[in-house]
Design brief:
This protein is an alpha+beta fold and about 725 residues long. A hairpin with a 2-residue loop joins strand 8 (about 430-435) and strand 9 (about 435-440). Helix 11 crosses helix 13.
C-alpha cells in the first residue's frame, strides 16, 4: 500500500476500535489491501483513487455496527463488477459469506436488457433474492448508494437526476422499511437537493432562520421538562435529545400536502428516552399536564408499531411561548431500533438466526415482493411494489377481532381484505366500516374497524374491476393469481381477442403463420413456455399487450419495406375525373365512390377497384382489403390506377376516435378546439370506458390528409387526451 492508502487503513482501524472488540482485523486488512490493489489506476468522477469509495462505504458499515464480513464485503463490493476479479476468487480468498454479500451487491451489468427500467428491475430482483438469503446485502448496498450520493456533484447533471430519482423511489423506501433512519433521511435529503435544488435551498434557509431563536427556546423548554420529570419521577433513568425534521420530511408537507412552514408542527422535537414502556406512558401524562396538547396529534406507535418495527409515543404540544413542537417518548431499546433498524442486531452482536421468528416475520416483505413479481411474470412489478407497498405513509385499520392491519395511504377495503388473507379477499362480497356498509373502493383511514363480508358460494371470486380499485401490489398480485388459476380458458380467449384487436387497430395484416411465429418469439422473450401462456397472461392482466406490440410493429414495417414494389399493368387509358376530385384511368361513364372500409382522404395514396354493378370503389393503397401484390391476386384486372385531382376543393367526411382521461368538461374542451378551427362536425358520441378513461367519436369534414392531421394535432393538445385515431367509416 502507498502512504495515502496506509493512512486511510489506519483511520479505518481506529474507527473500528471505537466500536468495540470482536472484529476479525486480519480479514479486514486483507480485504483493504486487495481493494487498493484491484482498483489500482482507476479513478472516480471526483478524480480520487477509486479505492476511496469502498473505503468510505466500509466506514458507513462500521458506523452501523455491522460485522467483519460486512466490512470486508463493503471493501470488495466493486471488484467483481469493475476489475478482472471473479466471484470464485473472492470465495476462495475471503470465504463464502463475503462472496455471497459481494455477489448480491454487484449490479447486473453484463446482461442484455430492452430498457433501463428493465435493467433496474432485474438488478433489484437479484438483490432482493440475495437479501432473502442474507439481509446484510442491502445494508451494504444502502451504504454504497449513500456515499455515491454524497459525491454525486462530480457526475453529469442528467446522471445526478436519474440517480437521485432512483434513490428517492427505491433505496430510501427500503432504508425506511429496514428502520435505518439516519441513512434513509440523508438519502432523501441528498436526492431532493439534486431533484429540486430551489425548494431544498428555500427549506434550508427557513430552518436556519427560524432555528436561531427557537433553538434557544427549545433548550429552555427541555431544561424545564428535565426538572419536572426529575421531580415527578426521581428514580427513573431519563435521557433527552432535540431534533429538527429532515428537509425531505418538510418538503413533503410543504410541496406535496401544500402546507405553509408555520403549519408544520413537528419541525422541532424533543425526545425523551427512558427504561420501560410503563415509564413512557407516565412521562406522557406529565407532558400533557405541563403543556397543552394539540387535538388529533397524538400517535401511539408503541402499542401499534410501524411495519419497520419503529416504536415511540408522539404528541404535539404548544409551549407557553406559543411554539408548537413534538415530544417523542420511547425506551432505550426502541431508540436503538429507531436509529439502526435491522442493523441493531449486529451492533449488539445478536445477528439474525434462522430460528429468530420475529426477525423472519420482519423480513417477510422481501419474499412477498418476489412472489408478487413471480406470479405476474412482469419484472417491473418489483419497482412498483417498492414505490407503493413500502410507502413511508401508512394507515392502520383494525379487524373486528382486534388485529391491526397496516397499509399504504390510499389503500381500499380490497387491499385490506387481501392483507388479511388471500381466501378472505377472493370470497369478499362487501365490507362494513365502523358497522356501516361501504363500497369496495372505500379508502381506508387510520382507526377504522373494518369487517369484510364474505360468501361460501362455490365458484365465487374477485371481479376484474378490482385491479383498478386495489392500490397495493400484494392485492393486485393475488387477484391476478386467482384469475390465472381459476379462469385459464377464459384468460386465453380474452388474451387472444385483445391481441387481434390491437393488430386490427394498427392495420397489421400478417398471415396466420407469420403471426404465430412472432407471438412465439414474444412468448420466449418474456419467459412464457408457449403462446397459450402468453395469451393467458394478457387475459388475467399479468402482462399488457403494449409490452409485445412494439416488436410486432417493427417487424411488420421491416417486412412491408422489404416487399416488392406494386406492379400495375400500364394501360393508356382515357382519364375520367369524378366529382370527388378523384382521377381514375381506363374507364368511361362510371360511378366512382369512396370505400367505407378505409375512407380515403385527399393526400392518401389510392387505387380503384371495379365492382360488379356499382362502379369503381376507391380504396387507400394500404387498406386491408387491397392485395399487397396486385399481379398475384385472384382478379388483378379489376384493380386500376387512381389519384387525386390537383384542383379539388371539396370537403371529405372522416371519423375520429379520441381517447382521454375521463373528466368534467372534457367534451366541451374538445369541441371548443374543433370550433376554433372552424371544422364542420356532423356527429358526436361520448362514452366512458374502463380504467377511468373515455372515448369521444367525432364525424367531421376535412379538406385533405394534411388538414385532418392538423385537426388531430389540435385535439391531442386538449388536457387529458392521450390518443386520437382516424377510423374507417
Amino acid at each position: 500500500m502507498n502512504d495515502a492508502a496506509l493512512r486511510d487503513y489506519n483511520d479505518l482501524l481506529e474507527y473500528i476500535k471505537v466500536q468495540g472488540e470482536g472484529y476479525d482485523l486480519k480479514l479486514i486488512e486483507k480485504a483493504f489491501k486487495y481493494c487498493v490493489q484491484a482498483h489500482e489506476g482507476q479513478k472516480r468522477w471526483t478524480k480520487e483513487d477509486y479505492y476511496i469509495h469502498p473505503y468510505n462505504v466500509a466506514k458507513i458499515i462500521v458506523s452501523l455496527g455491522m460485522d467483519s464480513q460486512s466490512i470486508a464485503a463493503a471493501l470488495l463490493h466493486d471488484v467483481v463488477e469493475d476489475t478482472k476479479t471473479s466471484i470464485e476468487f473472492v470465495k476462495k480468498e475471503f470465504g463464502n459469506d463475503v462472496a455471497l454479500l459481494v455477489d448480491g451487491v454487484t449490479k447486473i451489468g453484463r446482461l442484455s436488457f430492452n430498457s433501463k427500467e428493465q435493467e433496474q428491475a432485474e438488478s433489484l430482483r437479484k438483490m432482493l433474492i440475495a437479501m432473502g438469503k442474507d439481509i446484510r446485502v442491502i445494508i451494504i448496498k444502502l451504504a454504497d448508494r449513500l456515499h455515491n450520493m454524497r459525491t454525486i456533484d462530480a457526475v453529469p447533471e442528467q446522471k445526478q437526476r436519474d440517480k437521485s430519482l432512483e434513490t428517492l423511489e427505491v433505496y430510501a423506501p427500503i432504508a425506511h422499511r429496514l428502520g435505518i433512519r439516519p441513512v434513509k433521511e440523508e438519502l432523501e435529503d441528498l436526492a431532493i437537493k439534486h431533484l429540486d435544488p430551489v425548494a431544498y435551498a428555500e427549506i434550508e434557509q427557513l430552518i436556519n432562520v427560524r432555528s436561531d431563536g427557537r433553538q434557544q427556546i427549545l433548550d429552555e423548554i427541555r431544561e424545564r421538562i428535565k426538572e419536572r420529570l426529575e421531580e415527578e419521577m426521581p428514580n427513573v433513568h431519563l435521557s433527552f435529545q432535540s431534533r429538527v425534521k429532515s428537509i425531505h420530511g418538510i418538503y413533503r408537507k410543504m410541496y406535496v400536502q401544500g402546507k405553509d412552514f408555520d403549519e408544520i408542527y413537528d419541525v422541532y422535537a424533543i425526545r425523551i428516552i427512558t427504561d420501560t414502556v410503563a415509564d413512557c406512558y407516565n412521562v406522557l401524562g406529565v407532558m400533557h399536564d405541563m403543556f397543552r396538547p394539540i387535538p388529533n396529534r397524538f400517535k401511539d406507535y408503541i402499542s401499534t408499531p410501524k411495519p419497520n418495527m419503529y416504536q415511540s409515543l408522539h404528541t404535539t404540544v404548544i409551549s407557553r411561548e406559543g411554539i408548537p413542537f413534538e415530544i417523542q417518548i420511547r425506551t432505550f431499546e426502541m431508540h436503538h431500533t429507531a436509529e439502526y433498524g435491522i442493523a441493531a442486531h449486529w451492533k449488539y452482536k445478536e445477528g439474525i438466526t434462522e430460528n429468530n421468528e420475529k426477525m423472519q416475520n420482519r423480513l417477510a416483505w422481501i419474499r412477498q415482493i418476489l412472489d408478487n413479481q413471480e406470479s405476474s411474470g412482469d419484472i417491473s412489478e418489483i419497482v412498483q411494489s417498492i414505490k407503493v407497498d413500502l410507502s413511508q405513509e401508512d394507515v392502520f385499520a383494525v379487524t373486528p377481532k382486534g388485529d391491526v392491519i397496516n397499509l399504504p395511504v390510499g389503500s381500499t377495503v380490497v387491499d385490506f381484505a387481501f392483507a388479511i388473507h388471500s381466501a378472505v379477499g377472493v370470497r369478499m362480497v362487501g365490507a362494513k366500516v365502523d358497522g356501516k356498509i361501504v363500497p369496495i373502493n372505500h379508502e381506508v383511514k387510520t382507526g377504522e374497524v373494518i369487517e369484510i363480508l364474505t360468501t361460501n358460494q362455490a365458484g365465487h371470486g374477485p371481479s376484474r374491476d378490482w385491479m383498478k380499485i386495489a392500490v397495493t401490489n400484494q392485492a393486485k398480485a393475488k387477484i391476478r393469481s386467482w384469475f390465472k388459476k381459476e379462469r385459464k380458458p377464459e384468460n386465453i380467449a380474452t388474451g387472444k381477442l385483445e391481441i387481434e384487436r390491437e393488430l386490427n387497430r394498427n392495420n397489421i395484416n400478417f398471415s396466420e403463420e407469420e403471426c404465430n411465429n412472432l407471438l412465439e418469439e414474444a412468448a420466449t422473450r418474456l419467459r412464457f413456455p408457449n403462446v397459450e401462456e402468453l395469451y393467458a397472461a394478457i387475459g388475467y392482466g399479468g402482462i399488457s399487450v403494449s409490452k409485445i406490440m412494439p416488436r410486432i410493429k417493427d417487424e411488420y414495417m421491416k417486412r412491408a419495406k422489404a416487399a416488392k414494389p406494386i406492379e400495375i399493368t400500364e394501360i393508356k387509358p382515357q382519364i375520367i375525373k369524378s366529382s370527388d376530385g378523384i382521377v381514375v384511368e381506363g374507364v368511361d361513364n362510371c360511378l366512382i365512390k369512396l370505400a367505407k372500409c378505409c375512407a380515403p382522404l385527399p393526400g392518401d395514396e389510392i387505387i380503384g377497384f371495379i365492382t360488379r354493378g356499382h362502379g369503381v370503389s376507391v380504396h387507400k393503397r394500404d387498406c386491408n382489403n387491397v392485395p399487397r401484390e396486385i399481379k398475384k391476386c385472384e382478379e388483378p384486372d379489376r384493380w386500376i390506377p387512381a389519384h387525386w385531382s390537383n384542383s379539388h376543393s371539396e370537403n371529405f367526411v372522416s371519423t375520429l376516435q379520441v381517447y382521454a382521461i375521463d373528466r368534467e368538461g372534457l367534451l366541451i374542451d374538445v369541441m371548443t378546439a374543433i370550433q376554433n378551427m372552424r371544422v364542420p362536425v356532423h356527429s358526436v358520441n361520448a362514452r366512458p370506458i374502463k380504467s377511468g378513461n373515455g372515448i369521444i367519436t367525432l364525424t367531421i369534414s376535412a379538406e385533405s390528409v394534411e388538414h385532418l392531421r392538423s385537426i388531430i394535432a389540435k385535439i391531442e393538445k386538449v388536457k387529458g387526451v392521450f390518443n386520437v385515431e382516424r377510423i374507417n367509416q
